[in-house]
Design brief:
Blueprint (H helix, E strand, L loop, with lengths): L1 E4 L2 H6 L1 E2 L3 H14 L6 H17 L2 H6 L21 H9 L3 H14 L5 H8 L3 H17 L3 H22 L1 H6 L5 E4 L2 E4 L5 E4 L6 E5 L7 E3 L7 E5 L17 H6 L1 H9 L6 H8 L3 H13 L3 E6 L2 E6 L1 H9 L11
């Protein structure tokens, strides 16, 4: 078990962020091991490109730095800001100090010896950080970038939900809901699935990152020089594994129209117009028009949260969404 000792100052400095680099590495690990973390349809779609990248780039060197329970941290540097982009992550990876990268590579090779001479040559090279960054950059653009808007929308909605829980019920409740293996106990956070003893946050706070494909596990950064970080499964990711069934009696779509019904169904948690557009692959203007109709009918309400306007279902909207089969996913445009 890993225990994070938390002081009041740590709570004040704890924050949420997104990590494209962590998601990329999780996808690569899942494709390499076939561990079921990726939806079957996604894995089948991505695997040919993954195998081609292994032949054409030095991606195998990246895979050699990952084991089932641990990995080199510099290939997915914890983000510094809430709106982290892949370009930000790539710059942070490339900025890794050579001695830090070498120490992490040595540690990983001790856990998992590298037998492929080509991979050993990359890991021993003076420019290993740049070569790994280049392989990751191609993998990002060819494997993850096309799906990132939808994945990011799921992560953003998770953050909105967690912040709401903190505001309503406090940090202890929010931490306890992150994962079955996480609990708040005696002024600290206990992570049952992770080994690591006791780690002090040192007044620097905890970085919390929702992840799409880390489910059903957890991940943590707790070694210097990286900020103390907890990566947990984002809410709502189960929908990625579901195979939509053809609607037999699509009453909700017949009543509202298919696009408005899909919007109402998607508002099981508060979301902005931009998040909904990304999730459903609708034009933002069309989303705004449909939300205006739903709001006029009393099915959704809106409220400002910081710089964003978030929409949520009303009690009437909840009742209507629960009383009829949800619309299918076959129509992708409003």
């Amino acid at each position: 078990m890993l225990r994070l000792e938390v002081a009041t100052e740590d709570l004040l400095r704890s924050r949420f962020a997104l990590s494209p680099a962590f998601e990329l590495n999780t996808v690569l690990r899942a494709l390499n091991r076939g561990d079921g973390r990726l939806p079957a349809a996604w894995a089948a779609r991505l695997r040919p490109g993954f195998e081609r990248l292994r032949r054409e780039t030095e991606l195998d060197a990246v895979l050699a730095l990952q084991t089932p329970k641990a990995g080199a941290d510099f290939v997915a540097v914890p983000p510094r800001g809430p709106a982290q982009s892949w370009a930000d992550d790539l710059a942070a990876i490339r900025a890794t100090a050579p001695e830090q990268a070498r120490a992490e590579i040595t540690r990983q090779r001790a856990r998992q010896p590298v037998r492929d001479p080509r991979v050993r040559a990359v890991l021993d090279a003076p420019d290993v950080v740049e070569r790994i960054a280049a392989a990751l950059d191609r993998a990002w653009h060819e494997l993850v970038a096309p799906d990132w808007p939808r994945l990011r929308a799921l992560c953003e909605r998770d953050v909105v939900h967690r912040v709401g829980v903190i505001g309503e019920r406090g940090w202890a409740a929010a931490i306890g809901e992150l994962h079955d293996g996480v609990r708040w106990h005696d002024g600290g956070i206990e992570l049952a699935p992770i080994d690591g003893g006791t780690v002090h946050l040192r007044g620097e706070g905890l970085l919390l990152i929702p992840s799409i494909f880390t489910w059903p596990g957890l991940a943590a950064y707790f070694e210097d020089p990286w900020p103390r970080t907890l990566v947990y499964p984002a809410r709502g990711t189960a929908v990625l594994h579901e195979t939509p069934e053809p609607p037999a009696a699509d009453a909700l779509a017949a009543l509202l129209g298919r696009s408005r019904a899909r919007l109402l169904a998607a508002l099981d948690a508060p979301a902005s117009t931009t998040q909904l557009a990304r999730q459903l692959a609708f034009a933002p203007g069309a989303v705004g028009d449909h939300l205006a109709v739903l709001r006029g009918a009393g099915l959704v309400a809106r409220a400002r949260s910081g710089r964003s306007v978030l929409y949520r279902r009303t009690a009437l909207g909840d009742a209507l969404a629960a009383s009829a089969p949800l619309p299918g996913e076959r129509d992708q445009q409003p």
